[in-house]
Write a structure and sequence with these properties.
The complex is a heterodimer of chains A (about 300) and B (about 400). Chain A has 11 helices and 2 strands; from the N terminus they run ααααββααααααα. Chain A has about 300 residues and is mostly helical. Chain A has one domain. In chain A, strands 1-2 form a two-stranded antiparallel ribbon. In chain A, a hairpin with a 4-residue loop joins strand 1 and strand 2 (about 145). In chain A, helix 2 crosses helix 3 (about 70-90) and helix 2 crosses helix 8. Chain A starts with 8 loop residues before the first helix and ends in a 10-residue tail after the last helix. Chain B is α/β, with parallel strands linked by helices and about 400 residues long. Chain B has 14 helices and 15 strands. Chain B is globular, with a radius of gyration of 22 Å. Residues about 15-25 of chain B have low confidence and may be disordered. Classes of the chains: A mainly alpha (about 300), B alpha/beta (about 400).
Chain lengths: ~300, ~400
């Protein structure tokens, strides 16, 4: 049989597909970060905690109120977005005029508080959340066994990512958003409620994180530290893609998933570091990121 | 000049005070101080972590809070599974806070680093959480005890049982550091001795988030057995992913080489049923284990892992040794601990060997089916006892410098 790079094609295709699935999570999370950074100029370090909250809301819902997965997929992002909006209205709002660093410190502090209190009450070992009945099982693709749920992750995250991109780049609301990023004062002069726009944007970014959290709940343990594990990688993805670039975040997320997947075949020991290596190279060659505009 | 004289005087006085203290063979600083070092919030925190600290506190309280009239105190610290952080913390504990004994200790990499510090400062460490058999083999020191289990015991318990049932070709998922390497090496030896072979393996970084890629490689290998030479959250994530990708349905079997009660509880019986594992302790084995575990449960809301039970037993054994030696001086206490057999809810006739290995009976257990379980924590049935002299590496094979004739 023909071999690609010394590996049978089945193995390689399988790994690429797996990479795409992990990339879907990176894409969803970095998209949220990019939107928030683009409009609010806030580096949202609480993103990992909000992803974790999404998974926990789904778990709470199932355990105590019998809320099923499909409802949780809508409900959890709304609940977590409401929390995010409360944070924006009471805390973040005061920091827009200050240096980036203040927003970073505030959200980082919030993340530590949220994660710390969840560790206190739930421990770190993780709560079980089972795959919904409709998505159990899987198909043998010939080169690998693909669990239905993993296929669903790709579909769901691509739909949400490109839906978001379309909304921002092709609709009137998106045009307001982009205008708000460029010149908020001028936009306000046209009678647009910019503070509300900002609040909703933060809520939406947070909702994306929570959505990814619910998607992750059945395959990763629902644990208070699940967010901090993934957040650092996602930040690297955003830096590679170019801060604030919507399409850059999505494409880079998927791409990094693929690169990580390949590394797991060729040199698994480096699989957690490879993204940072890419980041270093990109920063050296294109400091604004792959899709960022040179300042 | 006057200043210098004063300084000299105080130096002499304090030196005299120190030497009289040593001669009297009493308790240094009028307190027995224990430091509890573990991963308190990461991958390995469920199996030892805050629960282990609580177990150590229980041991001190049950001892009456005092030994020979001197107060016992305990402090805890999070090593974050990082050897440099653990070693620095322990150095600071011993230099500044006069810690006499270090308990807990989970990640093998941290333990090996800390044991070097403890040896250089001539204090005591009792390792309950770590697995690497190298801790009492090539890395053995006269100041350290390895208390609960090790990779040799796990490999011979679980590994042998699996090979005997026909699992003669293996693929390893190995955590890429001291423990994973030791585990893989010990099991490989067992597999080869029993006539099996190892067809491949991957080494993954500690605390890997997604195992699907590695499970896929294991499936492609065609091995009969997928051996998990990892621990804690890495093991639970591997098992979850293996179930999702239908590893068992496709005809492969999984051998979890280091599985804790807390892992099985968190995964649920649906995922773990039928897994065979080696353990040093199970709460529902005897009336004594049940009685102690019930008290532990009331304090922590969870049943103890073998590590948490072992931490209580080891702290208790240490305090007993301090009491009968009449001092917390290292040599005297170590001699007393090695001389006295351990008989409590945790171990029967446990014995600390010259290489620091505490040998006691281990148990081969199987995870119950959901239909067999009568409660949240009714998780194992004990298949057989592995006697102490069979469970651990015999001294005749030891590379430890302390063993006579090495």
């Amino acid at each position: 049989m023909a071999e690609l790079l010394g590996f049978p094609p089945q193995v390689l295709f399988g790994q690429l597909l797996i990479g795409l699935i992990n990339g879907s999570f990176y894409a969803l999370l970095s998209l949220g970060l990019a939107i928030i950074f683009g409009l609010l100029n806030i580096i949202n370090f609480a993103h990992g905690a909000q992803y974790m909250l999404g998974a926990f809301v789904a778990w709470f819902g199932l355990k105590f109120f019998g809320v099923n997965y499909w409802v949780a997929l809508i409900l959890a992002p709304l609940v977590v977005a409401a929390i995010g909006i409360a944070i924006e209205k009471t805390l973040l709002r005061r920091l827009y005029k200050e240096d980036h660093l203040y927003g970073l410190l505030l959200t980082f502090g919030l993340a530590l508080i949220i994660e710390g209190s969840f560790v206190h009450f739930f421990g770190v070992s993780g709560q079980p959340y089972s795959v919904p009945a409709a998505l159990q099982g899987g198909n043998n693709l010939g080169f690998m066994f693909l669990p239905t749920y993993r296929a669903w992750i790709i579909v769901a995250s691509l739909v949400v990512c490109f839906g978001t991109w379309y909304m921002i780049e092709r609709t009137k609301l998106g045009a307001y958003l982009r205008a708000g990023t460029e010149n908020p004062k001028l936009l306000q002069a046209f009678g647009i409620n910019v503070p509300l726009l900002i609040t909703l944007t933060y809520g939406y970014g947070v909702a994306l994180a929570a959505f990814a959290g619910v998607l992750a709940a059945p395959i990763y343990s629902v644990s208070p530290v699940m967010g901090s594990n993934i957040l650092i990688v996602v930040f690297a993805v955003v830096v590679i893609g170019g801060m604030g670039s919507i399409m850059g975040a999505v494409v880079t997320g998927l791409l990094m998933g693929l690169i990580e997947g390949l590394t797991k075949v060729f040199y698994p020991e480096a699989s957690t570091t490879v993204i940072f290596l890419v980041m270093i190279v990109v920063l050296l060659v294109r400091p604004a990121g792959l899709f960022g505009k040179e300042a | 000049m006057k200043m210098l004289k004063k300084l000299m005087c105080s130096a002499v006085v304090s030196a005299m005070a120190a030497s009289t203290a040593a001669h009297a063979g009493s308790i240094s600083n009028d307190e027995v101080r224990i430091g509890y070092l573990a991963d308190m919030s990461g991958t390995y925190s469920a199996l030892a972590g805050p629960g282990g600290l609580e177990a150590a506190k229980m041991a001190i309280e049950d001892f009456g809070g005092k030994v020979n009239g001197k107060k016992i105190t305990i402090v805890g610290a999070d090593d974050q599974n990082k050897p440099d952080i653990g070693a620095n913390k322990v150095r600071q504990w011993i230099d500044v806070e006069n810690i006499d004994m270090v308990a807990g200790m989970v990640s093998s990499a941290v333990t090996i680093a800390v044991n070097k510090v403890v040896e250089a400062k001539d204090k005591i460490s009792i390792v309950s959480g770590s697995a690497s058999s190298s801790i009492t083999n090539q890395y053995c020191t006269a100041n350290s005890i390895h208390y609960v289990y090790d990779t040799y015991a796990l490999a011979h318990g679980t590994g042998e049982a699996v090979v005997q049932e026909g699992g003669d070709s293996w693929f390893f998922l190995t955590a890429d550091y001291a423990f994973g390497h030791a585990m893989e090496a010990d099991v490989t030896e067992v597999v080869k001795q029993s006539g099996g072979k190892v067809v491949g393996g991957v080494r993954h970084p500690l605390a890997t988030n997604d195992f699907s890629s590695f499970i896929l490689q294991a499936q492609a290998s065609g091995a009969k057995i997928v051996g998990l030479a990892n621990a804690g959250a890495d093991t639970t994530n591997s098992l979850k992913t293996a179930k999702e990708f239908g590893v068992v349905q496709a005809g492969q079997k999984i051998a979890g080489l280091l599985i804790f009660l807390t892992d099985v509880y968190s995964l649920g019986l649906e995922t773990t049923q039928g897994l065979q594992l080696t353990t040093g302790f199970y709460w529902d084995r005897t009336p004594e284990t049940r009685a102690w575990s019930k008290r532990y449960f009331e304090r922590t809301g969870a049943m103890p892992s073998m590590v948490q039970a072992g931490i209580y037993s080891s702290v208790n054994h240490y305090l007993n040794a301090v009491k009968s030696a009449g001092t917390d001086e290292t040599k005297a206490v170590m001699a007393e601990m090695k001389k006295t057999p351990i008989n409590d809810f945790f171990a029967q006739n446990g014995q600390i060997r010259e290489d620091g290995r505490m040998i006691h009976d281990m148990y081969l257990a199987e995870v119950k089916k959901p239909s067999e379980s009568k409660g949240d924590w009714d998780l194992y049935k004990i298949l057989r006892t592995i006697p102490a002299d069979k469970a651990f590496r015999p001294l005749s094979e030891s590379k430890c410098k302390l063993v006579a004739g090495r």
